[in-house]
Amino acid sequence: MKDSKVRYYKEFTDDFEQTREQDMKLPEDYEYIRRDFFSKLKYKLVYTCAVIFGIPYCKLFLRVKYVNKKVLKKAKDTGFFIYGNHTQPLGDVFLPALPSLPKRIYTVVSPANFAIPVIGKLLPYLGALPISDTATGMKKFTEALSERIEEGKVVTIYPEAHVWEYFTEIRPFAEASFRYPVKLKKPVFTMTVTYQKSKVFRRPKSTVYIDGPFYADETLKPRLQSKDLCERVYECMKERSKASNYSYIKYKKTD
């Protein structure tokens, strides 16, 4: 069976899923947590509908099997972080949400996602936490992220940044996003999505490995804690990625 597509890249930071407003920026007055009655109602309705849709989507379309998701129970009494590989434009909305139930997830995203037709308008109520490019905006972002964690919720981060659909390896990622669990002293779990050849369908089936918890090493200086945590998470995901045995989309590096 041949791969359905071949995609060429120069760097691991190349973006294959660009929106019509790729450089979209957040307004200075962007409200990360909307506290009025109707917004709270939308938060509940939109998220509930998303989960209801996500269950059959993951089971029937992505054909997902979770391995080791019971480890999330080790953090049932606190908020925590999930770091995953970014391989599904739509599926990555649901993949961390299902094993985290009954906890709700919030996901760090690029503002460009708000330009996606229809879904973009719903992202704030699905739990999107968009990154700002201003000092004031980043302060608000960090405060919102911290508040959700302290509420006992889950924050999902895709440190590879860009979606590479069905990519079977782990791309390098920076340590910057690991300063949040270090600062908040909260556990980290990994979610590694792998792909296996199907005997019936052209698209592969998915096996998702959950591992953790990982904690910052407080014997190190704060910046070194982030670096150390990043390296341990990366190595865990890299090892799990070896479970992939089929490239539905082949990625080839060009000069």
Protein model, in words:
By secondary structure, the chain is of the alpha/beta class. The protein is globular, with a radius of gyration of 18 Å. It starts with a strand and ends with a strand. Helix content is 32%, strand content 20%. The mean pLDDT is 93.
Pattern of helices and strands: EHEEHHEHEHEHEEHE
Q: What is the topology, as strand order, of the major beta sheet?
A: 2-8-7-3-6-4-5
User: What is the global morphology?
Assistant: globular
The major beta sheet can be summarized as:
7 strands, mixed
Short description:
The protein has 255 residues and is an alpha/beta fold. It is 32% helix and 20% strand.
List the helices and strands and how they pair.
Elements (H helix, E strand, L loop, with lengths): L4 E5 L27 H25 L2 E4 L12 E5 L6 H4 L2 H4 L4 E5 L9 H8 L1 E3 L4 H16 L3 E4 L21 H6 L3 E9 L8 E10 L7 H19 L8 E5 L2
Parallel strand pairs: 1-9, 2-8, 3-6, 3-7, 4-5, 4-6
Antiparallel strand pairs: 7-8
Helix pairs in contact: 1-4
